[in-house]
Amino acid sequence: MIVGSAVVQWGLAIATLLDLRRRDDDEVRGSKRLWRTAAFVNFVGPLAYFLFGRKKRG
């Protein structure tokens, strides 16, 4: 169970970092540096980014 949680946590962190790399600054709410740091805060940081940090494209 602990190993599974760690895998999910790191997967979310990596997905967050890759998404931040692909997006322009105007597609992210707030500072990209702040979101990169938040990506390493358990599950909360990546989930907050995906729920609140991204602006819709288009």
Automatic annotation (TrEMBL):
Region forming the signal peptide: none
Coiled-coil residue spans: none
InterPro entries (UniProt xref): CLS_N
Pfam family, one: PLDc_N
Location of the protein in the cell: Cell membrane
Membrane topology annotation: Multi-pass membrane protein
Cardiolipin synthase N-terminal domain segment(s): 12-54
UniProt GO cellular component terms: plasma membrane
Transmembrane segments: 34-52
Primary residence: membrane
Origin: domain of life: Bacteria
Protein keywords: Cell membrane, Membrane, Transmembrane, Transmembrane helix
Protein name: Cardiolipin synthase N-terminal domain-containing protein
Protein's organism: Actinomadura logoneensis
